[in-house]
């Protein structure tokens, strides 16, 4: 079985099969690995995110790089954990997480909403969180561009 997966990766790398077929195969493999327990990534919109400052039990994570936030600002109540360190930070001790981010580390059932600029990096972050065992992860698909447009902010 492992050899078959290696051969599939090799064919994709050599472009003998289209990338879309590889993604489909990857999706099938994840489904087989997780079975009916495959991580589900929810989707939220502007209206849900707008209410988050009054819902401190939920966590909004901006996965853009700090330089991006300096240029645009950030959504109120969000904390910045760049995509490249999301897994590491969510796996950190409770003490370390609280000292770095000023709030409790999320529990496995905490609602965590990820966003970035357009919603692609945030989806990757949500998938990473689900792989760590977080069961209530969501992606703000419109992310910063949607927020900025609706709030009249620079994009």
Automatic annotation (TrEMBL):
Gene3D superfamilies registered for this protein in UniProt? Rhodanese-like domain
Give all residue intervals belonging to the Rhodanese domain.
Answer: 54-152
- Look up the domain of life of the source: Eukaryota
Q: Name one Pfam family in it.
A: Rhodanese
* Taxonomic source organism: Drosophila yakuba (Fruit fly)
* CDD domains linked to this entry: RHOD_HSP67B2
PROSITE patterns, per database record: RHODANESE_3
Protein name (Swiss-Prot/TrEMBL): Rhodanese domain-containing protein
């Amino acid at each position: 079985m492992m050899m078959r997966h290696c051969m599939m990766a090799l064919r994709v790398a050599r472009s003998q099969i289209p990338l879309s077929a590889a993604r489909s195969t990857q999706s099938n493999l994840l489904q087989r690995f997780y079975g009916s327990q495959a991580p589900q990534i929810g989707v939220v919109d502007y209206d849900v995110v707008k209410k988050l400052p009054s819902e401190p039990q939920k966590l909004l994570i901006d996965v853009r790089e700090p330089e991006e936030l300096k240029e645009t600002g950030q959504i109120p109540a969000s904390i910045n954990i760049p995509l490249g360190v999301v897994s590491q930070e969510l796996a950190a001790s409770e003490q370390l997480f609280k000292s770095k981010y000023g709030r409790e580390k999320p529990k496995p059932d905490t609602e965590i909403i990820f966003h970035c600029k357009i919603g692609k990096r945030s989806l990757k972050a949500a998938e990473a969180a689900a792989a760590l065992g977080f069961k209530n992860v969501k992606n703000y698909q419109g992310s910063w561009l949607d927020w900025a447009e609706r709030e009249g902010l620079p994009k």
